[in-house]
Description:
With 396 residues, this protein is an alpha/beta fold. Helix content is 44%, strand content 14%. Helix 5 (169-184) links the parallel strand 7 (156-164) and strand 8.
Amino acid sequence: MPESIIIQVGQCGNQIGQKFWEKAVTEHASYNKNQIFDESFSTFFRNVDSRNGISNISFEKKEKIVELRGRGILVDMEEGVINQIKNSFVGELFDNNQIISSNSGSGKDKNKNNRNKVLNFLTGNNWAVGYNVYGKEFNDLIIETVRKQTEYCDGLQSFFLISSLGGGTGSGLGSYINELLCTEYPEVFKFSSVIFPAKNDDVITSPYNSVLALNKLINHVDCVLPIENNSLLDIFEKIEKSNPDFSQSSLATNVEELKKNKKLKNFDGMNNIVANLLNNLTSSMRFEGKMNVDINDITTNLVPFPRLKFLLSSMTPLYTLKDVRVAPRSIDQMFLDAFTKETQLIKTDGKSGTYLACALIVRGQGIALSDIRRNIDKISKSLKFVSWNQESWKTG
Length: 396
Ligand SMILES: Nc1nc2c(ncn2[C@@H]2O[C@H](COP(=O)(O)OP(=O)(O)OP(=O)(O)O)[C@@H](O)[C@H]2O)c(=O)[nH]1
Ligand SMILES: [Mg+2]
């Protein structure tokens, strides 16, 4: 299976990352009852036997899982969220050498630690600090940390960066990392999942940070998956209203704290939606299947020109069926739903625009090829495609 390294940067990137890892581990565990380290695990995980000093047990040996490590790198200049991940049930997936925070590399240098604290206090939410100050300061450590993770891979296919655009670290340092990866690993595919700020965002500089980061994204990554906090908030509130069980069942980490902090509660529910999307999007990289499409296939088919790389994504149902009880949806209705604004993760009207191409990824049992064909024929009539690409559907 192709291997992928997830790089999560800043508060938002790490909080979404945490949800992604929780879902991925849970999903693999539910399929892999005999605890053998198999091929599907190897996309995002490696098997380590630290007792015998073996840092990488190949899936070909079909050995039991000893200690799992995620192919992930956690980057944030504040330590709160990283500590929260370390204390969560996915915390053991990450060794200290997979974490880059303000104290990394500064050793016992007290002055530097104090300086970092002051810098954080004065200059949070500032793209330029993330890019220019932290980027330069952590340049070598980032290169070294990424190199170590790439050396554990047999066939590294992609880097997968997750961050917000509105803050300073994820946006600015994330831009710096993407640029660095572009120079150091030109042949490895770079995918970036970014969160756009909501209308009423409390970060006053978020529009500036977003514009600066977008410019870098256009130049340095192969494909971007933009997600808007406004869309996430609307979807979350809709699900919560129709299913009061939702927040209890899917959040569940620290209910008391969540109740105290409504916003954090929303972030958790919102991040859950993004994690589901990423989990589904990467499922065909992880599991065997005759009709699988991986991230490279998607980009080859959906990005006709290097600068037109922003995907409009949509997901239905919007939550895993395990989270809540939902009325069974007919297959055709699900296809129709996927082309409505309510299920889109960015607020735009696709129907009034022109499609360059469209990919449908169907997951689960009970859907036949004929169902997909029938629905594509139906849906095609309501969408406008560019003249030179009328038959532009990719299905998997
Ligand atoms: N969906 C979602 N959005 C978040 C989350 N955390 C922060 N945001 C949004 O991200 C933006 C702020 O970015 P952060 O990720 O907090 O900032 P940062 O990358 O840590 O950078 P600093 O400004 O240096 O702290 C705002 O638009 C927030 O609304 C989260 O967990 N989920
Ligand atoms: Mg932060």
